[in-house]
Amino acid sequence: MAEKELNVVGMHCPSCVMAVELSMKDLNGVDDAKASLDTNSVTVEYDPDKITDADLVGAVKEAGFDVE
Ligand code: 9UX
């Protein structure tokens, strides 16, 4: 299992945090996701054999946020 922190642009309230976390958790290969308004980031635990970094970034963008 690998862990990665993505910087997320556009989270402004707890619902945003939930939306980002759920967008990650819905993915096959993601074990856990924790987003934070304090750090504007989401930390993802995932299986690199099942999912790529690009997939993670794509899911955040699909949820309506940007990743830098
Ligand atoms: Mo909160 Mo986020 O009212 O896009 S859901 S700002």
Automatic annotation (TrEMBL):
Pfam families: HMA. One of its GO terms (molecular function) is metal ion binding. It comes from the Archaea. InterPro entries: HMA_dom, HMA_dom_sf. The keyword Chloroplast does not apply. Keywords: Metal-binding. Residues 2-68 form the HMA domain. Coiled coil: none annotated. PANTHER family: P-TYPE CATION-TRANSPORTING ATPASE. This is Copper ion binding protein. It comes from Methanobrevibacter ruminantium (strain ATCC 35063 / DSM 1093 / JCM 13430 / OCM 146 / M1) (Methanobacterium ruminantium).
